């Protein structure tokens, strides 16, 4: 008889440890059509992402989208690929290493592993690795400051799916959102001020967040409200008047109406209205990725200049900025309270 539950590792029990699973969206393993097709097939098959009945959606996905979109997307990935790999994977891995080091400097011996909701390293693979290392307490920290069912809830689904086939489940906590976290807001403000020091202060700061279908918000997704809250708090931290910043939404997919105003049309309109200098940032993305480096810093930049704009300053994501790593540490420690984060005793011989 075959059990649906995986067998547990046998042998000498390991000392109990605490771990943080730092989760991001995902990326292809390589900027090729085949790798991008595998990634998009997993991503676009998630019913949290596309809320269309599978019987209707699967023929469209496999018969149309996965035949045409992967080659185009792979070309975009190639335009931003780093020597070390995909920017999203590179920065997420660095953040995990830096967070572990920062916690260690503060006296907390916590393991930190990066994980991708789609692609590699998968959430299941990293939870398996934690188990093999003796991790009995896991804090799941999604790199999504603003909650959405399309992102944060999907991470919860993946963790729960792993638990559903596990025999011995660790204690698990989830960070739901941190759109108003002071450290996060201060890190964003610091990145803007650094840009001001380099290139002067533009008349308009555009804060571009990833979009979601408007229908999702009508059905109760808090993402729009949380994005607006982040924008207001960041503007207040920077001392900006309402006329000095603009909140927009990017990365629209399909024909349905998504959250507005859309980023690229908004930048084109600003240029047509005579604005010559603009600064653009993506507060909802803690790590640079295809949506920031290619969509914003290439496509939207080109559209703004073509419409008459002259200076387009892209403000990089938080990436490995020290203030952001400090904010991640402070956020993690808030949610680790009550758990033992001291160094485990030596393994008995």
TrEMBL record:
Keywords: Cytoplasm, Heme biosynthesis, Iron, Lyase, Metal-binding, Porphyrin biosynthesis. NCBIfam families: hemH. It is found in: Cytoplasm. Catalyzes the ferrous insertion into protoporphyrin IX. This is Ferrochelatase. Its EC number is 4.98.1.1. Pathway: Porphyrin-containing compound metabolism; protoheme biosynthesis; protoheme from protoporphyrin-IX: step 1/1. InterPro entries: Ferrochelatase, Ferrochelatase_AS, Ferrochelatase_C, Ferrochelatase_N. It catalyses: Fe-coproporphyrin III + 2 H(+) = coproporphyrin III + Fe(2+); heme b + 2 H(+) = protoporphyrin IX + Fe(2+). The gene is hemH. HAMAP family: Ferrochelatase. Fe(2+) binds at residues 210, 291. CDD domains: Ferrochelatase_C, Ferrochelatase_N. Its main location: cytoplasm. One of its GO terms (molecular function) is lyase activity. Belongs to the ferrochelatase family.
């Amino acid at each position: 008889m075959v059990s649906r539950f995986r067998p547990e590792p046998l042998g000498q029990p390991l000392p109990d440890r605490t771990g943080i699973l730092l989760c991001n969206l995902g990326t292809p393993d390589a900027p090729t059509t085949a790798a991008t097709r595998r990634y998009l097939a997993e991503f676009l098959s998630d019913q949290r992402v596309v809320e269309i009945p599978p019987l209707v959606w699967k023929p469209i996905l496999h018969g149309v989208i996965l035949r045409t979109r992967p080659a185009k997307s792979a070309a975009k990935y190639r335009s931003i690929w780093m020597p070390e790999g995909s920017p999203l994977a590179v920065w997420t891995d660095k953040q995990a290493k830096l967070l572990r080091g920062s916690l260690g400097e503060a006296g907390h011996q916590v393991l930190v592993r990066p994980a991708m909701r789609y692609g590699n390293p998968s959430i299941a693979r990293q939870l398996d690795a934690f188990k093999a290392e003796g991790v009995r307490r896991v804090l799941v920290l999604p790199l999504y400051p603003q909650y959405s069912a399309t992102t944060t809830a999907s991470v919860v689904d993946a963790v729960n799916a792993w638990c559903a086939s596990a025999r011995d489940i660790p204690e698990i906590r989830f960070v739901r959102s941190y759109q108003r976290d002071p450290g996060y807001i201060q890190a964003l403000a610091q990145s803007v001020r650094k840009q001001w020091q380099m290139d002067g202060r533009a008349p308009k700061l555009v804060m571009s967040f990833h979009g979601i279908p408007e229908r999702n918000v009508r059905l109760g997704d808090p993402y729009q409200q949380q994005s607006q809250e982040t924008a207001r708090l960041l503007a207040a931290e920077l001392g900006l008047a309402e006329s000095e910043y603009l909140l927009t939404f990017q990365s629209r997919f399909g024909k349905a109406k998504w959250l507005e105003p859309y980023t690229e049309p908004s930048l084109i309109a600003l240029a047509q209205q005579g604005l010559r200098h603009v600064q653009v940032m993506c507060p909802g993305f803690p790590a640079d990725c295809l949506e920031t480096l290619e969509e914003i810093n290439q496509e939207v930049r080109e559209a703004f200049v073509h419409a008459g704009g002259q200076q387009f300053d892209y403000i990089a994501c938080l990436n490995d900025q020290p203030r952001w790593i400090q904010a991640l540490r402070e956020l993690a420690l808030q949610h680790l309270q009550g758990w033992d984060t001291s160094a485990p005793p030596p393994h008995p011989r």
